[in-house]
Amino acid sequence: MMPQLSAGQLIAVAPTWLAPVGRNQVVVFREPDTGTVAVKRVVGLPGERIQLISGDLFIDGSRYHRVVSGPRELVPLVD
Q1: Dihedral of CA 79/32/18/45: which sign?
Q2: Verdict on whether the full-model pTM lies above 0.70
């Protein structure tokens, strides 16, 4: 996967308890084992079954088609 954020780029984050986290949103958290800061994109929501089959993302058995609203959205979900 190609990174959407560049090394050294600054982003503003809000605590998740202020707003619900939705699909395709970027989240920042500390890894529980190492304490390393991780930046990830949300794919699955609570209760959903997620599968990655031959590079295609399936959510609850249906192939996921992400809506692209502009060139910045063209970063692939998976490599």
Answers
A1: positive
A2: no
Alpha carbon distance 49, 35 (integer Å): 28
Cα–Cα distance measured from residue 47 to residue 10, given in angstroms and rounded to the nearest whole number: 32
Q: How confident is residue 4, by pLDDT bands cut at 50, 70 and 90?
A: low
Structure tokens at 44: 């699955």
Q: What is the mean pLDDT of residues 5-33?
A: 80
- What does the angle CA 74 – CA 9 – CA 29 come to, to the nearest 5 degrees? 85
The amino acid present at 76, given as its one-letter code, is P
Nearest C-alpha neighbor of 60 from the set 77, 44, 76: 44
